Amino acid sequence: MTLRDYITAVPKVDLHVHLEGSMPPETLLRLARKHGIALPVNTLDEVRDWFTFIDMPHFVNIYISISRVLQTPEDIEQLARDFLKGQAAQNIVYSEVTYTPYTHYHQKGIPFHEQLDALNRARRWAEDTLGVTMRYIFDIARELTPAEGAITADWVIDAFHEPDSGIVALGLGGYEVGHPPGKFSDSFARARDAGVTLVLHAGEHGGSVNIHGALAEGSVRIGHGIGCIDDAPLVALLRERQVPLEVCPTSNVCLGGSATLAAHPIQRMIDAGLNVTVNSDDPPMFNTTLTEEFIRCAETFGWSAHQVDRLIMNAARSVLLPPDAQAALEAHISGGMVDARVKYL
User: Fold this and answer.
1) In the beta sheet, which residues pair with residue 112?
2) How far apart are CA 315 and CA 15, in angstroms?
3) What is the mean pLDDT of residues 118-129?
4) pTM, full prediction
5) Which residues are catalytic?
């Protein structure tokens, strides 16, 4: 069998995946029809063609449509269930999902706890029926004001320690240029004081400055992080601390962080001894999956099954779970790797 078969079969972890950006075309069409919301396309085949990435404005237009069709907590639950079905089909056994609750509160008035309850209904259903699970990184969109960002921070602070809340971190997402992590320092400081973990996007665009900023705010992982590679002192610091970097190669190419996959710095980052993980970001919007990310990179950079295993285990060791749950996940993935090797290699 082939390495492609092995990558398809082996258990995987996705640390950087946006729930809204993971809406399948089928879900978008179903919810649009349910709520009588017009789309620029009408059939499922047309929606699938429309999802093909063209440029940033097109990407934003699709994201706006996705947000518009999420009108109720039940819609959010349906999105999460459909997402988890897709993860299970790829043998992605654990995902840490970035989700932006303020959008759906501000636009449609859906209370935060109704959103959280909907996500948790989907999570528990998937654990019981599919054998996969997820946890949540609720993020502040960089474009918000500090006062608006504080609303999300307060939600996370209040719910973080609730039993089985599913929340593992407060995040920061959105377009970096002009919106440094320090813009929300007050919210991050209050979150840290409350024992909330921080996971911030940084270094996707604009070089290394926002990575420095994210580390200064206490981010335990870096979302993307590719802008580190030309900053030698930062590379040394990231290597020393083994800060996990959530690299999303196809997303980076589509959004201009790298001209091509062959030019992507992921191999240089690995060679520099950094703690690299491979992730999917907004997979249907970039015409990819986590499985495809590994396959494309393996073909482009000549990765072996051993290198794929190493990157998957980097992710498994970087999850934001209690030590016993993290160890159980790592053992499950190790066992799956053994089974897949026997069958496919």
Assistant:
1) none
2) 7
3) 98
4) 0.96
5) 204
